[in-house]
Amino acid sequence: MKSFKTHLTELFDKPFPIYLQREGTDEAKYSYKWMENGKEQFVVVYFARLSTPTPDSWDCTFSRNGSTALTGEGKAAQVFASVLDGFKRFLQKYKPEDVSFIAAKSEINATTLSYTSGSRVKLYMALIKRYAEAHGYKLEGRKEMPKVNINFPNTRELFTIVRKNKW
pTM of this prediction? Predict the structure, then answer.
């Protein structure tokens, strides 16, 4: 029987084909494309250099077809495999001091119109432990962010990973 770690590795080791890779001084973008039901689908992993807390701090966002919301459209494992592939490419090329990204703690599923709670935070924690540490990074901290809108229960959590050793 395979261990959970082996299963997790296999689950996230098949990204969509990379379509575009752009790497500059202050930003990097990795786009993945595939066809589904006769339509082009995209995952974009975007990194932007920040000025704080260090000159080598970066922010990461990723989207599926331009949205960061939970889509419920399937292929979640390949979507996250593509995000992890973009992260790996970025970390290998830039070797940044730290990278921050945000996870929604609760969100509405665009397809079912139902709320989910905590699933992204748990997934990100597992992925950080497995993949960031394998590339020389560790979780520095988590910080709850204020709600986007008082009428929408969408709390968010900021994650920051830092390089363990100087290169």
Answer: 0.81
